[in-house]
Structure prediction request, 212 residues.
Amino acid sequence: MSISGKTLVAVIFLLTACASPPVSAQLEVPRTAPTAGRDSGKIEPSVLVNDAPLLLQANLKARILAVQQGGSTLKTYSIAVGQPRYPTPPGTYTIRKIVWNPSWKPPPGAAWAKGKTAKGPGDPGNPMKVVKIFFKEPDYYIHGTDEVESLGGAESHGCLRMDPTEVADLAKMIMEHGGQPRGENWFWRIIHFRREEQVVYLDDPVSLTIVD
Prediction:
């Protein structure tokens, strides 16, 4: 049986039309982490971790400060805690204020501070190194210390001591999650101009829990 030229052209046209997708058809785009699950109302675990608040927990017995987010521990730091005569108070606190290059004044009426004099920001004799992270104002805070040999012990007067480099790292992290991030130039100035005190108030306070 012979097929005319017109019939052959018509058959080819029909076959081509059936094989081609409609003009209105949309391509399926592979889902990526930022978009996966958003349209279904479900949030992927990675998104939950990123959006979860930063939580700090200090264990007085273990002398460890843990940084947690979304059920995961991001970092742990060695700390010094209060002496038996000057214990660090257990409880749950809210961090709202951070002071970089802090000054120091002897606590009025404190026997251990008798004869000590106030020290300005960056003074070599200032026991507050780099930064103070207040959790119970005005007397209790996390701060850097040059007595790094005391870390892991009960050596402070109620505050939580940390290595100066590590407390700076912690303070930067708290600021980022507390709604007050800063650029590297800002931190460079903090480190290189130690006699300039800088106070930062968090837009989104960070929780600290201290357990025995």
User: Anything to note?
Assistant: DSSP finds four helices and ten strands in the chain. The helical segments are 5-19, 45-51, 164-177, 184-192. Residues 6-49 have pLDDT under 50 and may be disordered. The first strand starts at residue 54 and ends at 59.
